[in-house]
Write a structure and sequence with these properties.
With 267 residues, the protein is of the alpha/beta class. The chain has 2 domains: 180 residues, HAD superfamily/HAD-like (Rossmann fold), CATH 3.40.50.1000; 73 residues, Trehalose-6-phosphate phosphatase related protein, domain 2 (Alpha-Beta Plaits, 2-Layer Sandwich), CATH 3.30.70.1020. 37% of the residues lie in helices and 22% in strands. The chain is built from 9 helices and 13 strands. Helix 3 runs parallel beside helix 9 and helix 5 runs antiparallel to helix 6. The structure holds magnesium ion (MG). The site of magnesium ion has 7 residues, from loops.
């Protein structure tokens, strides 16, 4: 894997005659990871960069998150940006409003899982269940290390019958388990949908997609954009399907600054 900042000077050549479609994960990519998801915010510098990128006519920006759309919009608060929430199940932006169709019985399944988890986890300090409408997250970042195996067992016990009946889908992220509707829709599918839409609206200019992400759920997007765009993993080299890597959210801010610079020079 190559470091993304090391190849930035080649961007001008790659981008000639094209526009950029910038897809950015939120937690761990734009905002540093924190113990409580409620405390994850953008730095002033990153927010300023995003505002300027969104304003630039050569660049389109989408924030792609596992958070629910309301939450992510409240945290970013920038107009002209596309917001992709719940790993692609909800998409909102200028002239875009999309919500994935799910089985009518799914909400009841989700709420019974939530209730059961809350009951079983009431004695485990630091574990908490977040209701995100279309999905559910069990966060265990604040759980004492010795209790983590218990949390995992409780989770698997709770979801196993629903999983066996194809009533839900389960995915693990960084110190979090997610329960989702049983449909084949993820961050990768959502960004391909957005790209196709963009290409249709603007036939004259090709959009080059960039995707920045740090977690297992971003791997779907990295795979979807293989050979089609520029993929950047935030973390250590070699742990991802992405082509490039950056070490931290600070380096992501530096990369965004470079991209903004190049966007401003495209004719
Ligand atoms: Mg993330």
């Amino acid at each position: 894997m190559k470091h993304f900042l090391a190849i930035c000077d080649k961007l001008k050549k790659v981008l000639a005659g094209k526009t950029i479609f910038l897809f950015l994960d939120y937690d761990g990519t734009l905002a540093p990871l924190v113990d409580r998801p409620g405390r994850a915010f953008l730095t002033k510098k990153t927010k300023r960069l995003l505002i300027n990128l969104a304003k630039n006519r050569n660049c389109k920006v989408a924030i792609v998150s596992g958070r629910r759309i309301k939450d992510i919009k409240k945290r970013v608060r920038i107009k002209k940006i596309i917001y992709v929430g719940n790993h692609g199940l909800e998409i909102y932006g200028p002239k875009i409003k999309f919500e994935a169709k799910i089985h009518p019985k799914f909400p009841a399944t989700l709420s019974s899982i939530k209730e059961e988890l809350n009951k079983k986890l009431s004695k485990v300090d630091g574990a908490f269940v977040e209701d995100k409408g279309l999905t559910l997250s069990l966060h265990y970042r604040c759980v004492n290390e010795r209790d983590i195996p218990d949390v995992k067992t409780i989770f698997h016990e709770t979801v196993s019958t629903h999983l066996a009946g194809d009533k839900i889908k389960v995915k693990a992220g960084k110190m979090v388990f997610e329960v989702r509707p049983p449909i084949t829709w993820d961050k990768g599918k959502a960004i391909l949908w957005l790209l196709a839409r963009q290409q249709f609206a603007n036939k004259n200019r090709k959009a080059l997609p960039f995707y920045f992400g740090d977690d297992t759920t971003d791997e779907d997007a990295f795979r979807a954009l293989r050979k089609r765009g520029i993929t950047v993993f935030v973390g250590s080299s070699g742990e991802s399907h992405a082509e490039y890597y950056l070490k931290s959210t600070q380096e992501v801010a530096r990369a965004l600054k470079q991209i903004l610079k190049y966007c401003s020079t495209i004719e």
